[in-house]
Write a structure and sequence with these properties.
The complex is a heterodimer of chains A (277) and B (311). With 277 residues, chain A is of the alpha/beta class. Chain A has 10 helices and 5 strands. Classes of the chains: A alpha/beta (277), B alpha/beta (311).
Chain lengths: 277, 311
């Protein structure tokens, strides 16, 4: 079912709030990854506030869906979404990347409520998601594993090992969502390591492939429904996004992968996100 | 004739894994060698052959562990602890995931395949990973216990196996304990602290030395981590001469672990290191390799005499 206009507006308002909070936070701590956090915002928001079955009061609920941020560097956005959802106080966000925090620079499943897997080293997440999917099936638990991946991450060969295996083991409870922002740390993905036709690649690896606008919560919601309906094989959603989305001077710029935000930049970014210019 | 440790492992995994439905076995296209196929044949629903993709295998195992499964990952020790290391470190170690890394063909036991297939760094690598327990199987009865213990205890583990048979030093009812070495034979002049195939060699060395009037204690330090500090320091105090013996580089493995204990414990004892002397071996018959690279009975006996002479 498509989203109602009011629900769509609610989700978009949440995304805008998360972006504003992210810029303020990363500015205040002078560390963290803005680019990929901004691009994955709608994907995570749609999952946690619309599609994924999770219970903040019972983070280890066995029947829950597993949302795994395999592109662990977008941790600030994951944390912001988890906090809003009620997994931990929003107030705790200010401890990000600081000593004694539960909010490590990259997600740590041991410490942080709601984090399903420790990620950061790219290329391992999809394999682990496949293991989760197989484990859930063995227990006859009807839950979905969502692997939220980066496109730069697909440079890692292990991702494709996992794809072959997901296909072999018919993991139809596994949905990979690629935050296809076309930019990685050192440059565009075309410059650094061209990914070619990703849809054809995933198809060749035995996936059912979907493509949608990764900043359109309605399109994401509808496409996730389609992906969930796939039987007998894994599905992937290539969510077309813009790195740094929402802050025009960050958009599409690899330099904003992990750069600290200065005072002037923060002011400009916030004005834009608040619609003040 | 004792049985090869890989055969014992295959049978034990089936024996205990059949009972516990959470046990899964994963293999990277070498299940006929590792003997995980024995389990796979009887329990096909819990056996995942992932092809020649070790990194993916350990990643999948980590995911399975998050759902309460007890995954055993199987391949040659050399590939498991190199290509599989990122998953071991970033997933199993960091998140304390209950994955069992079964290092098949440890040391130079894949003798004829040569140095590309030998594993001489695995103990050093795996014991640096926080939360991991590290074991080296020394005989068939201990191997059986190690498999059962791995299923019973919730912790990431690295367990080094061997392709070959080793001298049997235990009986079916021998009791083992994590973090406790086994004194196989007591003595007052020196202590050989060994693991794996070297335990049997150490016993033979001690018997040969006894004929010369040298009284040697032999310890099987099958649990490298957590290591038995108490037994190491007690052996040092009692005998004043320690020889570590392992089918592994002398850097960072059992010898290194024992040296760390001796130094930090303020022990007054000399230590000699039996192991690969910072070099790769070569292909050839297993026993010939052990002999050429100083992992044999006479090399251990000579090291004991050397250690005693330094006291």
């Amino acid at each position: 079912m498509s989203l109602t206009t009011s629900r769509k507006n609610e989700l978009n308002a949440l995304c805008n709030k998360f972006r504003i909070d992210l810029i303020e936070l990363l500015h205040s701590i002078q560390t963290g990854h803005p680019g990929g956090s901004l691009s994955v915002c709608e994907i995570l928001t749609t999952l946690y506030f619309e599609k994924a079955k999770v219970d903040p009061k019972n983070p280890k609920w066995p029947e829950r869906d597993r949302v795994v941020l395999t592109k662990g560097h977008a941790a600030p956005m994951l944390y912001r979404v988890l906090a809003e959802k009620g997994f931990f106080p929003v107030e705790e966000m200010k401890t990000l990347r600081q000593l004694n925090t539960r909010l490590q620079g990259h997600p740590c499943a041991l410490e942080t409520p709601g984090v399903e897997l420790s990620t950061g080293p790219l290329g391992m997440g999809l394999s682990a998601c496949l293991g989760m999917a197989i484990g859930l099936k063995a227990d006859h638990i009807d839950s979905t594993v969502y692997a939220v991946m980066g496109d730069g991450e697909l440079n890692e060969g292990t991702c494709w090992e996992a794809c072959m295996a997901a296909s072999k083991f018919k993991a139809d409870n596994l949905i990979a969502i690629v935050d296809r922002n076309h930019v990685q740390l050192d440059g565009t993905s075309d410059e650094i390591m061209p990914l070619g036709n990703l849809a054809e690649k995933f198809k060749a690896f035995g996936f059912e492939v979907f493509t949608c606008n990764g900043h359109d919560v309605e399109a994401l919601s509808d496409t996730i429904d389609l992906a969930k309906a796939v039987k007998g094989k894994p599905a992937v959603i290539l969510a077309e996004t813009v790195k740094g989305k929402g802050v025009s001077f960050m958009e599409g710029k690899n330099t904003w992968h992990g750069k600290a935000i200065n005072d002037e930049e923060c002011k400009l970014a916030l004005a834009e996100l608040r619609g003040e210019k | 004739m004792s049985r090869s440790l890989r055969d014992v492992y295959g049978d034990s995994l089936l024996k205990y894994g059949k009972e516990n439905k959470n046990v899964f076995a994963l293999d990277a296209d070498v299940s006929g060698s590792t003997k995980s196929a024995v389990f796979g044949k009887e329990c096909p629903d819990r056996f995942l052959n992932v092809g020649i993709a070790e990194a993916n295998m350990v990643g999948m195992a980590a995911g399975l562990a998050t759902t309460g499964k007890i995954p055993f990952v199987n391949t040659f020790a050399v590939f498991l602890t190199s290509i599989g290391l990122i998953g071991a470190r970033s997933l199993s170690s960091y998140s304390k995931l209950n994955v069992k890394y079964m290092g098949a063909y440890g040391g130079v036991s894949d003798a004829f395949d040569g140095p590309s297939h030998h594993s001489l760094e695995d103990i050093a690598i795996m014991r640096t990973l926080p939360n991991f327990q590290v074991f080296v199987a020394s005989d068939e009865y201990q191997t059986d216990w190690l498999v059962k213990n791995a299923i019973d205890v919730n912790a990431p583990m690295y367990i080094r196996l061997s392709r070959d048979a080793t001298k049997t030093v235990y009986t079916p009812d021998t009791k083992f304990e994590t973090g406790k070495g086994k004194v196989i034979r007591d003595g007052k002049d020196a202590t050989i602290i060994a693991c794996g195939v070297m335990v049997g060699q150490a016993v033979e060395a001690a018997e040969a030395l006894a004929k010369k009037g040298i009284d040697v204690r032999v310890v099987d330090m099958f649990c490298i981590k957590p290591i038995d500090r108490e037994l190491i320091l007690e052996s040092a105090a009692k005998t004043g001469a320690i020889v570590t013996a392992e089918e592994h580089s002398i850097i960072g493995g059992l010898g290194g672990a024992v040296a760390e204990v001796l130094t930090s414990g303020g022990a007054k004892a000399v230590q000699e290191f039996i192991g690969l002397q910072d070099q790769h071996a070569e292909c050839g018959p297993y026993n010939a390799l052990l002999q050429k690279y100083g992992l044999d009975v006479s090399s251990i006996a000579a090291a004991v005499e050397k250690a005693i002479s330094k006291k």
